[in-house]
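Colleagues,

For the teaching module next term, I've prepared a clean inverse folding example: a structure given as tokens, and then the sequence designed for it. I'd like students to try predicting residues themselves before seeing the answer, so please don't circulate the second half yet.
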């Protein structure tokens, strides 16, 4: 019998939505996640809930689901269904969401300790993929093509001279910082002007779990950021950008005035390419669409914001950076995560294989 045909112990007998007063474990669990992760994990919990109550119409709401009634038999049956329906990486992400919400149920007093530990100990789904460790990495030529597409002069209106638009400068800075600092898409979206130190050439980044880290801004990203800040801050006050920055003690590198510290760095643009100065910050989803659009314009194979981050970590390790240093720069909680971006093992295998001497002469040489 296939796993999907196995009977899943139903939680339908527990009336959804009628629980003891207090927050639902899913609500508490999702609230502590970053916005991008929140969407993903809510979808994962919805899938798990639907597996447990397959005949529900409408599908059960994860934030009104009786997670406190979850038991080890439910967890094992859910794992079996996930293992058959999804790729192992997706199944394990859903199981991670399940463990997280069960922990909240236990901490809220909705589950006994023994029930929680038994249910949360469900094993991960095993699997492997040749591309899992490296994923999609962007070559230097692809990065250059992306930035050139952003900075391609266009005519805002028919008959007007071609210029680099404010939107183009914004998108070039998004690409440059996404790769040059290895930022997640939500980290890019939530950057504020006050997070930047153009004198020390670094940025303060708010990552997962409200953890902050300081990331150096490499030269190319620094220049893209400085050029973009001129048009961004000029739009805020309607003045020339040079009037809105201060300079260091030697009168050299300009940096934003402190009065703009809470100003969102990246905002949406109008159809003609002008920034909407008073707009809220871009969302993580908007960052995703920006990169998809620029990839199409540059003739670059589609990639995700995370691929810029993957390229950043992989290139750091290729350049000889210590694994622990790369971990700190990327804001990974575990060095195991950072090691998953390491491409050097694959290249070493390719180099070793290339040294093998297979005694075959091409027909043209006979």
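(Answer key — instructors only)
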């Amino acid at each position: 019998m296939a796993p999907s045909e196995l009977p899943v112990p139903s939680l339908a007998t527990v009336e959804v939505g009628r629980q003891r007063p207090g927050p639902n474990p899913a609500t508490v669990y999702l609230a502590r996640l970053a916005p991008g992760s929140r969407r993903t994990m809510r979808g994962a919990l919805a899938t798990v809930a639907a597996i447990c109550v397959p005949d529900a119409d409408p599908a059960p709401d994860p934030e009104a689901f009786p997670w406190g009634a979850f038991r080890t038999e439910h967890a094992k049956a859910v794992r079996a269904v996930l293992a058959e329906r999804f790729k192992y990486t997706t199944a394990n992400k859903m199981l991670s969401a399940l463990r997280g919400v069960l922990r909240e149920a236990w901490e809220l007093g909705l589950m006994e300790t023994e029930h929680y530990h038994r249910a949360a100990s469900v094993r991960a789904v095993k699997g492997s993929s040749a591309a899992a460790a490296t994923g999609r990495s962007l070559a230097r030529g692809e990065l250059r093509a992306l930035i050139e597409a952003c900075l391609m002069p266009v005519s805002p209106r028919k008959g007007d001279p071609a210029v680099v638009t404010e939107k183009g400068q914004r998108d070039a800075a998004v690409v440059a910082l996404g790769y040059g600092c290895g930022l997640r898409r939500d980290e890019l979206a939530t950057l504020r002007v006050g997070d930047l130190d153009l004198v020390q050439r670094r940025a303060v980044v708010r990552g997962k779990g409200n953890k902050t880290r300081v990331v150096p801004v490499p030269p190319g990203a620094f220049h893209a950021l400085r050029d973009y800040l001129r048009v961004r801050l000029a739009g805020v006050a309607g003045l020339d950008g040079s009037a809105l920055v201060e300079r260091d003690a030697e009168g050299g590198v300009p940096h934003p005035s402190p009065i703009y510290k809470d100003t969102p760095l990246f905002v949406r643009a109008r159809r003609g390419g002008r920034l909407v100065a008073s707009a809220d910050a871009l969302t993580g989803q908007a960052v995703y669409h920006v990169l998809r659009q620029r990839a199409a314009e540059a003739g670059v194979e589609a990639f995700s914001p995370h691929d810029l981050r993957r390229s950043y970590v992989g290139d750091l390790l290729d350049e000889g950076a210590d694994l622990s240093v790369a971990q700190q720069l990327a804001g990974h909680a575990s060095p195991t995560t950072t090691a998953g971006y390491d491409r050097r093992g694959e290249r070493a295998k390719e180099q070793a294989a290339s040294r093998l001497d297979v005694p075959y002469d091409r027909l043209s040489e006979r």
